[in-house]
Design brief:
The chain has 296 residues and is α/β, with parallel strands linked by helices. It has one domain: TIM Barrel (Alpha-Beta Barrel). It is built from ten helices and eleven strands. It has an eleven-stranded parallel sheet with strand order 3-2-4-5-6-7-8-9-10-1-11. α7 packs parallel to α8. The mean pLDDT is 94.
Length: 296
C-alpha cells in the first residue's frame, strides 16, 4: 500500500496500511483542512487558573480574548466561539457563572464549550442548551490525572462527566497524545473506554513542551508512537470521524505527524503543513477547506 520508510517498522507499517484501507472503505476520498480564522478563542477566567497544570500553567490562556472584551468591542469576521478558561480546583471551567454573557455569544454564532469536569445534572443541562458542541478533554490514566492536573479524580470521573454532557449536547472527546510529559500512558485505555460509548468524533492533539510549565524540559512522544496510536484509533473506530487538532509541536515534527495522520485515515487536520498537502495529493485525496474550529 505505502512505500515503506526506513524509519517505519513492520508493525507500524502494517497497522497504517490497515487503517488506510478501513478509511477507504468507509469515507469519501477527501480530507478537510481547517484554518479556523472564523473562530475566536475566549477565556472566561482571563489568564487565571487554579490548577496551573504541568503542561500549560495558564500560558495558553494569555493568548485568548476575554469575554468582556468581545462583548464590549465586537468581533468582526467571527462566526463561532471557543469558550474556555482556567479550571477551578475541581477541574471544571466556570462557564455556568458566565451564563448570561455566553448566551449573548451564542446569539452571534456557533458556540464550542470547553467545560472541564461536570458533575451536576443542572449544570450539564444548562451548558448543553447553550452549546453547539462541547470539547471534552478525556484522560485514560489516573496517574496522569494526578501528575498533570493535580486532581484527586479517577478515569471514571472523566467518563461520568462525558456521559452526563452527552445527554444534553454533542460532545467531541479530545485526547492529548503524550499528555504525561511526552509519555504515552492512558491513551490506548481511553480509546478502549470510548469504544464502548457513543462517540460522534474524536479529536487528537499532541503534547507540546511549553516554556514556563512543569513539563518545559520534556520531549514530545516519538512520531512513530503517535502514528501507531492514530492508526489504532482508525481501526477501532472505522466509521467515526477523526481530527488532528491545532495543538501539536512545530517544525519537522509537525510535518511528520501531519503525514502520518493522513496515512492513518484521519478526516480533518487543523492548520496543516505543506507536507500534509503534498501527502494528500500522493494519497489521491481531494482537499476541502473550512474556517472554523474543527469540532464545530
Amino acid at each position: 500500500m505505502f512505500k515503506k520508510s526506513n524509519h517505519i517498522d513492520d508493525k507500524l507499517d502494517n497497522i497504517l496500511n490497515r487503517a488506510w484501507q478501513i478509511r477507504k472503505e468507509n469515507f469519501p476520498g477527501s480530507v478537510e483542512f481547517v484554518f479556523p480564522t472564523g473562530t475566536l478563542a475566549i477565556s472566561v477566567t482571563g489568564d487565571n487558573c487554579e490548577l496551573n497544570c504541568a503542561h500549560c500553567n495558564g500560558v495558553y490562556l494569555r493568548n485568548m480574548a476575554t469575554l468582556n472584551e468581545v462583548l464590549e468591542n465586537g468581533d468582526d469576521g467571527i462566526t463561532s466561539y471557543l469558550a474556555s478558561g482556567g479550571s477551578d480546583r475541581w477541574g471544571r471551567v466556570p462557564l455556568i457563572e458566565c451564563l448570561e454573557e455566553l448566551k449573548k455569544l451564542a446569539a452571534r454564532g456557533a458556540l464550542n464549550l470547553h467545560t472541564g469536569l461536570v458533575s451536576k445534572t443542572e449544570e450539564a443541562a444548562c451548558l448543553g442548551d447553550l452549546a453547539t458542541v462541547v470539547s471534552f478533554d478525556f484522560v485514560g490514566d489516573k496517574e496522569t490525572i494526578a501528575e498533570v492536573y493535580g486532581l484527586p479524580f479517577t478515569v471514571d470521573d472523566y467518563l461520568d462527566s462525558y456521559r452526563l454532557l452527552k445527554k444534553y449536547t454533542r460532545v467531541i472527546p479530545h485526547l492529548c497524545i503524550g499528555l504525561s510529559g511526552g509519555k504515552i500512558k492512558g491513551e490506548y485505555k481511553a480509546l478502549e473506554i470510548l469504544k464502548k460509548e457513543s462517540v460522534d468524533a474524536i479529536s487528537m492533539i499532541v503534547f507540546r513542551p511549553t516554556a514556563k510549565t512543569g513539563f518545559s524540559d520534556c520531549t514530545p512522544p516519538p512520531p512513530e508512537k503517535v502514528a501507531h496510536l492514530m492508526a489504532t484509533a482508525r481501526v477501532m473506530f472505522p466509521q467515526t470521524a477523526l481530527y488532528l487538532g491545532c495543538m501539536r509541536p512545530g517544525g519537522r515534527y509537525r510535518e511528520t505527524i501531519d503525514t502520518y495522520a493522513l496515512k492513518a485515515g484521519f478526516n480533518k487536520i487543523v492548520l496543516p503543513t505543506p507536507a500534509a498537502r503534498h501527502q494528500a495529493s500522493m494519497l489521491g485525496l481531494s482537499i476541502s477547506y473550512s474556517g472554523e474550529c474543527c469540532s464545530i
